C-alpha cells in the first residue's frame, strides 16, 4: 500500500481528497493535517464520512512527517502552501500541491498576479504542471506536481489540442466561465453566504482573475506563440461545477477537423468525453466524477467556433485530478479509485 | 381609469402583468382570458394573488371583448398570438403583444426563424418595437406594440448607444447570456423539471436561438449597417434573471467615452442604472423590478470591452416593460405602477 | 411626513425596512445608522436600492438623534439593542425594537434563555408585544414596541384564536417549523455558507430555540393557562420563508368550528389569509409581502388537527410587521406602504 | 457473474439502479427495458453515464426475457408494475419490485389507498418486504421482494427498534417528513416544474399520503399492536434527500435506553449510522449513499422524544436498497457495490 498524507485536509478540496483516498484500493492515508481542527475527528467536520474515515486531525510539520510517507498532498491556500511544501521537497518527499504556488514557470508572473513573494523560484523549474492528459511522462517521474486550477483545467483541456494543431488562432479567444460556489472554499465570507449568492447570477474579476496567467502559459506552450485571452468568470448558485464557453474564429475549419483532432488526442483518454453533434455538456453530467465533457458548435452565420466544457470544480478541477496525478506518479492504473460515475439527478 | 384586458393571462408573464396592473393607480383590469382555466379563480392558480385579485378566468374572443376596452395585452405564445391579435387590431383595439409575432420587420425572417407562416405581414410595418427607452415617440401613438424578447432587452439596452455613436464596431460581438428557468414558462416539459435543471449549468441553442434576428435587427438599425452577433444562451437554476456578458473590441475607446455615452442616452431614464467603476450588475439586484443594470470593464491586456447587463426576465424582460409601454401609450408617468424596488435577499 | 430613523440598518431586516419606508407614502427616513458601514452609501451595500435610496450610513448615538425624530427602529441584535434603546426611551423617543430584548415579560426568563443580563427590567412592563392583529389598542399608544420573532409570528397567528376560544388543549402541541437561510442574517459564519446549507435539509436546536419562551408566553396569555410546546426548527435552502406545521388533538372539533373561529378573529384583517378547504399554504405565495397564510386539515384517522402557516420571515416575520406596527402607532391605514403582492415565481 | 435485467429503466430510480449495477463487481446487466425510449442509447437519456453504460433500451416482455436472467428489477410505477411482474414470477424469475404493488399484506388496504384493483392477492403472502435490516432471512430466500417506499424507509428504520422493545407507545406518533423533488420522478407535471417548487416550502397530502398504510403495517408488526400515525410530507427544493422528524412521548425513557436499543439492533449494521449526542442528521451527509443517519433528542420541558432520520430518497429510499436486497438474495456481501461515501458539499 502506498502511504499518503494530507496537509491542510479540512477545506473542501482536502475533504474530497480524503474521501477519494478512502475508496482507493492501493492507498493508505496515514495523516490528516489541520492546524485549526487539531484533535478533532475528521468525520465530525465532514459528516458524510462518518463510519468511513476514522482519523483525527493532527498538526503536522516537516519533522513529524513519517519517513515512510510515499506521497504528500498539500491542500493549503497559495502562499501558505509553499512555506510548508518547500521543506518537504528539500527532505525528499514527493508532493502534489493544490495551490498556485508552483504552477507558473516564472516567479515574476506569480508575484505580479498573486501579490506575494515566491520563496524559492528554483523549484518552479522542477515542478511539473499536473494536467495528466498532457504531461504524463513528466508527471510519472516528478518530485513536485503543481495540480492545476479549476478554471484552467476546464479551459486547457478543450483548447490545447486545437492550438497544438494550429486549428485555431492565438488571439481573440473569449472565455466565459461559470462556477459553483464551492470554488470559494469553506471559510466564511460575505462572498459565499447563501442569501447573497442564491437566486443570483454575477460576473466577477473580469480580466483580473488569477487563473489567467496559468491559462495563458499553457496555451502559449501548446501554440508555440504567445496566446492572450479574455477570461470572465461568473458565480452561479450551485454547489459544484464549472462550465466554460469558449468562443474563437472558425475560419478555415470544419466540424470534421475538430472531431479528428479531439479523437487523436483524447480518443483513448479515460476521463475526457467528446460529445457527438447535437449534444452539449452540462455540469450535472460530470458532478461527483473526474470527467471533463467537451462539445462544440460551429456557427456559420457568425463564423465562430464555440467550445463548451464541463467539469466538477472540486474533482477534475482539483482533488480527483490530484489522485489521477498520483496514479501516474506511482505507475498505477490511471483510473484507480476514480471509477464512480456521476449521480443524476 | 384605463380599462385593460389580458389574453392568455395564466402563463408567468400574464400573471406578472395581472399583479402589476392590480398595483397600478390608473388601471382597471376588466378581463382575464384563458382557454384552459375558464371559470377558475385566478388566485386559485396564482396563490400569491389571493385577496388581491378576485377575477375568474374567461374565454374571450374578438366579439366578446367589451367595446370600451382601452388596451389589450396578449401574453400568448408566438403563432397563436397573431391569430388572436390580428382581428382585435382590425376592430381598432390598441394591443401590446408579448410574443415574437410582430417584432421582426420582415415576414421572411420571421418565417425562417420561427418556422411558421405570418398571417398578415402588412401589420409588421405598423407595429412598433416596444423598447420604451428607444422608441418613446412611436410607442406613444402606436396601435400595436411588439413587446421585446427578454434576451434582446438585456442585450439591446447596453449595446444600442454604443453602436449608435459608433463607439464600437459592427462585428465580432460575442454575447453570452444566462437566464433563470422561468423563461421557459409554466407549461411542464422535461426542460424545466426541477431535478433536471437544479444544480446544473448548461448552454443551449448556440447560434440558433430565435431571439437572434430580433437582436440583430435592432442593432443594425442603430449602427446604420448590418450587425452580426454570436449569441449563446445558458440555463441557470434561479427563478428569475438574465445576465448578459457582452464582449467586443475596445479599440480606440476609453472608460470616459462609454460613461459619457451612457450618461447622454440614459442619464435621465428612470429604469436604467449605470454602475460606477468597480461595480458589476447581478441579477438579484434587479429581481422583482423594471430596472436594467449596466456595468462594464475595459481589459487593456486583451483589448476587449466587456459590458454586463442584468434584468428580471419576467419584468423588464416582459411584463413590466409592457406596463411601461402602456404608460407611454396613454401619456401617464412612465414609472406609474412600477415603483417597487427589488427585494434583497 | 413622519420622520423615521433606523439603528443598525445594514442587516437584512434593517435593509428591508429601508426599502419599505422608501415606498411608504407618509414616511421620511432621516437617518440610517451603522457602526461598521459609517460613511458608506447604503446602496453600495444593497445594490437593489440603487437609484432608490441615496443615504449614506452614519454612526448615531442617543445625543445625535435629531429631536424631531418621530419613530426609531432598532434592528440590532439582542443584548446590543437594549443598550442603545434604553437611553432613547429615556429621552422620550418612540421605539420599535426588532430584537428579543423587550419581548419577554419576565427578565428571569429572558436571562435564562438568552444567557445575558437585562439592563432594565422595568421597561419590560411598558413594552408592548407588537403583534398588531392582537394588540392593536396597546400598540397605538405604546412608547416601546417589541417586534415579534419570525418563528413566533408564524406560530402565534394560527394558534392564538384556537386557544383563546378553547377549541384546542394547552398541551401536546407539536410545532415543526422550516425557515429559509436569511433568518441567519447577513454576518458570515459556517452556518450560512452556501455550500453547507444548499441541497441540504436539517433540524437544529431541538427544544432549545430561543423563540420558545416567547411563543409559550403569548400562547399562555391567550389560553389563560400555562401552555407548553415542542418546537423543532429546520433550515431549508431558500432565501426567505417560514412554514410552520402545527399538530394537536382534534378532539371535539370540526372543520366548521375552526373556520368560524378564524373568520371571527381574522375575517376583517388585511394581512391574514385563511385558505379554503383543499388548499395549503406555501412560502412562495407570501414571499415579499406582509401576508400570513393559514390552512388546516383535520385527520380523522389519527384524531389530529394540523394547522399550517406561511410567512416571509424578513417581512411579516420582521420588517413589514414593524411598519404595520408603526402604522398603528401613528393612526395611519394599517396597510399603508404594505400593498405589494408577492411575486410568482 | 449474476445476470440482471431492469424493467422500466428510464425513470430516476431505474437510472440510479443502472449506475449502481455498473459499479457492482458481481453483476452483469443484460437488459434495460423501456417502452418509450426503445432503441435509444441509455446514455443519451442520462448523460452522466456516457462512457460507462453502453446499452440501448429495449422493449422487453415476459417472453423475451433471457432464460438465464438471475434477477429482474421492476422500476415501473404501481399498477403497471404488477401487470408486468406477475407473469415473470409465474415463470419462476426472482424479482425485486420498486412499486407499492406488493408491499401491503392485504389487498383491501392496497385497493383502498391506491384506488385500483390488485391483480393477484395470493402473491402478497409470498412477497417479502425488502427492508434488509429487518427481514434478512426472508429476503435471502425470497422470489419476490417488495422494495420499500422512500418515506417508509426513513421512518421505519428509526422507529422499529423502539416499538419492538416497547420503549415508546403505539399512539400519538407525529411524523413530519421533508423530501427533495426527485421523489416526484422524471415525468413532467406542474408539481415538479422548477419555478413552482424552487424557493418554496410546502406541505401536501396531509394524512392522505399513500405511504401511510405501509408505515403503519410495519410499525404494527413490530409493536405487536395496531399503530396509528399522523404523517405530513413536505416538498423541499433540493434534488435528493428525505429528513423525517418524528415526535412521540418520552415518558419513562432515557437517552441511554435509546442508545442501547439502537446499539443492539444497528450496532453491526453497515448502513445505519447512529449519531452521538449533540449531533443531528442532515440530508447532505447521506446524499449519494445507502446510509440512513439517525439522531435524537429528549426534550424534558415538553416530555417528548424527537428522533430525526436522513436518507437519500433515490438510494436507501429506493435503488441502493434494492441492490442491498439483491446482495442478500444472492449471498453476497451486503455492502457489495455500495461502498461509495457521500460527497460533500
Automatic annotation (TrEMBL), chains A, B, C, D:
Its main location: cytoplasm. It is found in: Cytoplasm. GO terms for cellular component: cytoplasm. The keyword Calcium does not apply. SMART domains: Semialdhyde_dh (SM00859). Gene3D superfamilies: Dihydrodipicolinate Reductase, domain 2, NAD(P)-binding Rossmann-like Domain. Pfam families: Semialdhyde_dh, Semialdhyde_dhC_1. Residues 3-142 form the Semialdehyde dehydrogenase NAD-binding domain. The active site is at residue 150. Its EC number is 1.2.1.38. One of its GO terms (biological process) is L-arginine biosynthetic process. It comes from the Bacteria. It is an enzyme of class 1 (oxidoreductase). Pathway: Amino-acid biosynthesis; L-arginine biosynthesis; N(2)-acetyl-L-ornithine from L-glutamate: step 3/4. GO terms for molecular function: N-acetyl-gamma-glutamyl-phosphate reductase activity; NAD binding; NADP+ binding. Keywords: Amino-acid biosynthesis, Arginine biosynthesis, Cytoplasm, NADP, Oxidoreductase. Signal peptide: none annotated. It catalyses: N-acetyl-L-glutamate 5-semialdehyde + phosphate + NADP(+) = N-acetyl-L-glutamyl 5-phosphate + NADPH + H(+). Belongs to the NAGSA dehydrogenase family. Type 1 subfamily. Catalyzes the NADPH-dependent reduction of N-acetyl-5-glutamyl phosphate to yield N-acetyl-L-glutamate 5-semialdehyde. NCBIfam families: argC. This is N-acetyl-gamma-glutamyl-phosphate reductase. The gene is argC.
